[in-house]
Amino acid sequence: MIKVGDSLPSTVLQEYSEVEGEGCSIGPNAVDVAKATAGKTIALFALPGAFTPTCSAKHVPGYVQHFDDFKAAGVDEIWCVSVNDAFVMGAWARDQKTGAKVRMLADGSADFARATGLTLDLTGRGMGVRSNRYSMLVKDGKVASLNVEGPGKFEVSDADTLLAQARG
Predict the structure, then answer these.
(1) CA-CA distances (angstroms) from residue 156 to 16, 27, 28, 144?
(2) What is the structure's pLDDT at 92?
(3) Residue 16 CB contacts under 8 Å (≥ 6 apart), including other chains
(4) pLDDT tens digits, residue range 45-103?
(5) Does residue 3 form part of some domain?
(6) How many CB atoms sit inside 10 A of residue 33's CB?
(7) Is residue 2 part of a domain?
(8) Pairing verdict, β 102-106 and 77-82
(9) Which residues are annotated as catalytic?
């Protein structure tokens, strides 16, 4: 399992864009994790699935609500990573009104989750291999803090906990 001091895995996530922009076309766009985190401070949180109860009611809204606080604490970007495809993450972004506050990044084949060692096997519930629920503060591609939830819990990966760590 990834730990504080480790570099994030060299994987590619996908992000759905509704408008063309700086090097982004409409639709899914590749996000090279190493390049996208270089020289930046990222508040990254991951969760089992889009549109699921705790993720939609608590996890994402907390980060959207605290966007300005994270910026004031020196965080460049907030990332939400889930084992879903980019189209689902794009629809969830619209539903959650994340706008330019939280980048909703798809880990469709769970490559990032597997590479971090933070998977959650929900095969018995018909959901396959997913990401565990966690948050991490990433500085220049390296893990500065890591908060992994216990099974079925939502106690340490919330926005308040990671914000306190970002304020250091």
Answers:
(1) 28, 33, 31, 15
(2) 95
(3) 27, 28, 29, 86, 87, 89, 90, 93, 104, 106
(4) 999 999 988 888 889 999 999 999 999 999 999 999 999 999 999 999 999 999 999 99
(5) no
(6) 25
(7) no
(8) parallel
(9) 55
Domain that holds residue 162: 12-167
Distance (Å, whole) CA 79 – CA 77:
6
pLDDT in tens, 7-45: 999 999 999 987 666 666 678 999 999 999 999 999 999
In the sheet with 12-17, reading across from the earlier edge strand, the strands are 27-32, 12-17, 102-106, 77-82, 41-47, 134-139, 142-148
Number of domains in the chain: 1
Sequence-distant (≥ 6) Cβ neighbours of residue 41 within 8 angstroms: 74, 75, 76, 137, 138, 139, 140, 166
The answer to whether residue 37 sits within a structural domain is: yes
Let me know if residue 50 belongs to a domain: yes
CATH code at position 134: 3.40.30.10
